[in-house]
Amino acid sequence: MTSTLQPPTATARRTPQQRVDDWLARFDQALTAGDPTAAAGLFAVDGFWRDLVAFTWNLKTAEGREQIAEMLGARLADTAPSNWATAEPATETPDGVAEAFVEFETRTGRGSAHLRLRPGPDGNDEGWTLLTTLQELKGHEEPQGHARPLGAVHGADTDRRSWAQKRDDEESELGRTTQPYTLVIGGGQGGIALGARLRQLGVPSIVVDTHDRPGDQWRKRYKSLCLHDPVWYDHLPYLPFPENWPVFAPKDKIGDWLEFYTRVMEVPYWSKTTCTSAAYDEDAQRWTVELDRDGERLTLYPAQLVLATGMSGKKNVPTFPGHEVFAGEQHHSSEHPGPDAYAGKKVVVIGANNSAHDICKALVENGVDTTMVQRSSTHIVKSDSLMEVGLGALYSQQAVDSGMTTKKADMVFASMPYRIMHQWQIPIYDEIRLRDKDFYDSLTAAGFDLDFGDDDSGLFLKYLRRGSGYYINVGASELVADGTIKLAKGGVDHLTENSVVLSDGTELPADVVVYATGYGSMNGWAADLIGQEVADRVGKVWGLGSETAKDPGPWEGEQRNMWKPTQQPGLWFHGGNLHQSRHYSLYLALQLKARYEGLDTPVYGQQEVHHLK
Amino acid sequence: MTSTLQPPTATARRTPQQRVDDWLARFDQALTAGDPTAAAGLFAVDGFWRDLVAFTWNLKTAEGREQIAEMLGARLADTAPSNWATAEPATETPDGVAEAFVEFETRTGRGSAHLRLRPGPDGNDEGWTLLTTLQELKGHEEPQGHARPLGAVHGADTDRRSWAQKRDDEESELGRTTQPYTLVIGGGQGGIALGARLRQLGVPSIVVDTHDRPGDQWRKRYKSLCLHDPVWYDHLPYLPFPENWPVFAPKDKIGDWLEFYTRVMEVPYWSKTTCTSAAYDEDAQRWTVELDRDGERLTLYPAQLVLATGMSGKKNVPTFPGHEVFAGEQHHSSEHPGPDAYAGKKVVVIGANNSAHDICKALVENGVDTTMVQRSSTHIVKSDSLMEVGLGALYSQQAVDSGMTTKKADMVFASMPYRIMHQWQIPIYDEIRLRDKDFYDSLTAAGFDLDFGDDDSGLFLKYLRRGSGYYINVGASELVADGTIKLAKGGVDHLTENSVVLSDGTELPADVVVYATGYGSMNGWAADLIGQEVADRVGKVWGLGSETAKDPGPWEGEQRNMWKPTQQPGLWFHGGNLHQSRHYSLYLALQLKARYEGLDTPVYGQQEVHHLK
């Protein structure tokens, strides 16, 4: 039976809404009947079901009917899903895929879903991709909208304290006379977004950071730093950037926003705080964390510990022969102070990815003689191409004007299974390669070693797989192409007193060497803070197991260890870019809230550890 | 010809959209033909046209066909309106009034309008109310949405300075090497909202305030203070409060928000700044303003001076016989520090309006023996009744959920002509009086002297007419009703060493007297800063000329001197509640921008002065 010779079935002539309603009805029937095989049978053989917490208490993608049936076999009865209905009218793509935003309920919560249907071999619709996400826990809904707090108390207020006083009291008690349930280490956008969610969910938490003020993580970086993702992608939870916020916000503006967000969202935040050690007490099921808070030594006993120290782990500084005789200054890119001190000097930057480009651009704009040393290829994409072609359908002014909301965009973005995401991305980067042909040619002509990811799937997948190896061009590439930023190729062999010598013998005179050589896995922080044993128990953080550069297999299906239970009880990792910090903070906060409330949270398909770093 | 006997005309059977389109077509025709009489003839004899800047370069309500024709006679040719079209589908009220949000253009700008049509005596639709507002100036649009600033510079940045450095440089130059075009005196919500608009419009401005930090105007008030208007009414421009903001925000939370807003909206703000004098230079057409900025003496030369010192003018402190022998503490409500110092004391509060109630409530909750002295009646409305019945259709969670936006709500609110606003308001307060009958009865039973405004039109009109004489109940009234707050009636005759004696001889022992006795007209600040001559030239600020208590005639049709040209060139007043600060800051900012750009701004119907204060 070949579908090409069959007459068009009723599928072809039904509206997308009818297609979705029909499928949801059969889906609901199979689920209610407690029949995993029947439910899984409604999916394409190569269909996907990605669940964020609602069914699996995990972030888990089931790939194919078997895995879907297996997941349901374990989780269907307990989840008790019901009330599947579209949230708004379903739509259809030009190639016949029906798409819908769907709402549903479970025994313990309410969820949002996204569904794609396409006709199977027999012409009937099959589930191609289903994303189910938990949005709220019944009985523990956030106080917003109709449920927002009243504020003023009507009638006699038995609590005499003003709001400011209550907050002061809370701040002086938390961590001293009352323990936080969750301690979040790291107060950048990740920790702050998670802290805001936990606050709204009523989970006693503290976010701690070493810097003086929230936002300093941005303020104290090199002065040319700005966001490379456009504003619509970057909103924090609850409080989006206004209509007149720049597309690519300068670092100090983001710093200011984060500082005041922390304040007005009442995120419980300790700055000038360093955690010196943490140990898990298996019997008490809580952590013992030693801290130094602005000189005061304290011990906290949170049940849950979240490392939100940044998707980048500890700085990676190679030790080249001769580094100890080099007379000039050497530092890692994360410690680069900016170009001001280097006028008249020769600077050699080892590395050719994001930090290297940002640093080189600032240096040459300050008139500094600058050489970038490229050892392996870099994926380059122009930020406006990324914005328009890569993100435009979901995160752009036009998207907003056509009714796209941040929540819907996040749902659509999350609905693309990692396994096949490259199918969506490859055509995008083909288009970009054509669109910016002259640009790429000019780079190649200058000797720059370009790539588009191992399978030409471009930036986002390279980011998801290894979190590095790219530069979103905001001007440095033009300076490489025209030679303003000098380019040297090859690995470093050794340093002399006043130069960097490459493996082919090329000698680069240098007063300053900047190691733009990246970062290790986030579990490096865990190793430092908790111990190597726990770091190894948890394993490598980030990456998909795609068997591409720096992302060895086996296939994980989800980001290693991010935003979900790890092999170390009570230990979690949060972070990513502003989009991920915003979106995934919801799911992590809900998992923590459920545990705080003593709800049953049986984790399905806990990730195993295949790599230590 | 009586309309009741006529068969229903086509009007009755047409859709609201058809009705509006037809009327707009005829309106546009008459306007394009340059025919004021024909255009005015499309209105009901008693129709209204309220214009905010677009036609009149003023805030001006034309009442009735004659005034409409007169306004058009003077302004039609120069305004050159065109492109009238509904912004969204027109609607119809149950009693047959067609309503629409409309967009239009003028020679120099683009505007938003709101239209109400109702059938006239012959059954044809007539303009009942038309609101036209200027929204932007052509060629001077605000950089938002599609036009938002890019932020990062693509390619080589010839300006080496980071954003933070540019802002620092700007801050150090403004007022020293470069003059602001506009100086805004007063950095509360009014000054801040206006400052944000001026920033977006590119008008060099400074907002100055005496306090240490933005938001202190709220932080430093008595601790129980919170907003009495609900959150949906209170948003600032550009950056609405989030979904989880309390309905009635406590003062410190508002203080934090204002501080945050000032920073992230890049409002140029000088705190710790007092203006000591200002004088207008007629020849140079600019002000000379002497300031003390944190101890440094400076002179500024702005072309435009805005007093945004608060809708309340200078404190009004009556001087009773014996005040000089009274042994205890005496202060005006604006200087009341809160209840903490008065445990065990007897406090007498003179006055029975908003401040008196807030202060008395806080005192009794602190166990202080407190008596409120009421001389004249007070309008009381419960805040939830006001919120639900008074504002609910426009400013509430339900309104938001049904698609109401702040802009549309502001337009509808502004579309109700002041002359007939009581018609809308009286039924609302009739309903409130019924709904809260027990509440009001309990107050009357306690001896409290209640009113609902001179014509029973309730709170908002009392606010518009005199800005005082009411209390939005957030709990104090229950304490008056049950006697916790003691009530005394009558005027004060004199003070003794340790008591307040009323005109009927009642003696109230007192350790503290709080004069909750209100404020003068805002031009009192002008008198202090500039001089009595200018204060008199400008006259009384606020009020409608309704010939009700404290609002003598003749009828003004608009708020005296607010947000529009005054009789003193270069002098403006801004303020009002959070709604007005938000909404009217747009029109004031546009008027200032137009002058900054040297556009022609012929003011139609400049307000005359009938009262000095």
Topology at a glance:
The structure is a homodimer of 613-residue chains.
Chain A: H1 10-13, H2 16-32, H3 36-41, E1 43-52, E2 59-63, H4 64-79, E3 82-86, E4 91-92, E5 98-105, E6 109-119, E7 125-137, H5 163-173, E8 182-185, H6 189-201, E9 205-208, H7 216-219, H8 231-234, H9 251-264, E10 269-270, E11 273-281, E12 286-293, E13 296-300, E14 304-307, E15 329-332, E16 346-350, H10 354-365, E17 369-374, E18 378-382, H11 383-391, H12 397-401, H13 406-415, H14 421-435, H15 437-445, E19 450-451, H16 458-466, E20 470-473, H17 476-481, E21 486-489, E22 492-495, E23 499-502, E24 507-509, E25 512-515, H18 523-529, H19 532-538, E26 571-573, H20 578-596
Parallel strand pairs in A: 1-7, 8-9, 8-14, 9-10, 14-26, 15-25, 16-17, 16-25, 17-21, 18-19, 18-20
Antiparallel strand pairs in A: 1-2, 3-5, 4-5, 5-6, 6-7, 11-12, 12-13, 22-23, 23-24
Helix pairs in contact in A: 6-20, 11-14, 14-16, 18-19
